């Protein structure tokens, strides 16, 4: 099976930093360590409220990284201007609600097709690879394809939640939807990524789906780093991904 990239999301290093103000722990230092541990890319989400990653972090990441930056953002004018200024390797458009704790669902592309088509066009022209974060739903995949996105990222949150709750039936149903929709999207010529909520316990069935070229994982790795160090956590995640695809 082809190699699957691992994008490490460093948002929650910034969450811990911001809990106290000041500048430690530094998400850029974490990103460099992640690179050294084998991350194929770094993902950072600049939220409207700047609750974790800040504007200066993005600037420093752009300067410091040897691997590509995947810039996650909501489809707002402010974020588009920031992305066009930095021209990161990739942008991933995610839904954002101010009151949510994390990105709770996929983007409603089908409902906003026209606006999103116009929104992503300049990003593509600037050379950014555009990804859309969506549920494993044919309607959303078709819409993402029509608006000209090169990549879709499938939201694995429902699958992971069902696993944690011990709801095997829902977990297996979600996994089946991932399998079918990854294959469907690949057939349309879209590159397929996945992420949200993945852990050592949930990563392998998703990593084993042949069409999925990249996983983006953050919260679990940053939490696990408390116990085994960031490098150790990333190396183990990489090992599990490789094992799943062997
Ligand atoms: N992919 C996308 C599009 C996300 O928004 C997030 C969370 O910011 C992730 C992956 C990573 O999720 P987690 O931090 O739960 O691993």
Characterise this structure.
The chain has 246 residues and is of the alpha/beta class. The protein has one domain: Aldolase class I (TIM Barrel), CATH 3.20.20. The protein is 50% helix and 17% strand. An 8-stranded parallel beta barrel has the order 1-2-3-4-5-6-7-8, surrounded by 7 helices. Strand 2, helix 3 and strand 3 form a beta-alpha-beta unit. It is globular and about 45 Å long. The model has no long low-confidence stretch (mean pLDDT 97). Pyridoxine-5'-phosphate (PXP) binds next to strand 8 and helix 10.
Q: What attributes characterize this protein structure?
A:
246 residues, alpha/beta, TIM Barrel, eight-stranded parallel beta barrel, 11 helices, globular, binds pyridoxine-5'-phosphate
Itemize the secondary structure elements and their pairings.
Layout: E1 5-9, H1 11-20, H2 27-37, E2 41-45, H3 55-64, E3 69-73, H4 77-86, E4 90-93, H5 113-125, E5 129-134, H6 138-147, E6 151-155, H7 157-164, H8 168-187, E7 191-195, H9 203-207, E8 212-217, H10 219-228, H11 230-245
Parallel strand pairs: 1-2, 1-8, 2-3, 3-4, 4-5, 5-6, 6-7, 7-8
Helix pairs in contact: 2-3, 2-11, 5-6, 7-8, 10-11
Bound molecules: pyridoxine-5'-phosphate.
What's a quick, concise take on this entry?
The chain has a single domain, classed as Aldolase class I (TIM Barrel, Alpha-Beta Barrel). It is built from 11 helices and 8 strands. It has helices at residues 11-20, 27-37, 55-64, 77-86, 113-125, 138-147, 157-164, 168-187, 203-207, 219-228, 230-245, and strands spanning 5-9, 41-45, 69-73, 90-93, 129-134, 151-155, 191-195, 212-217.
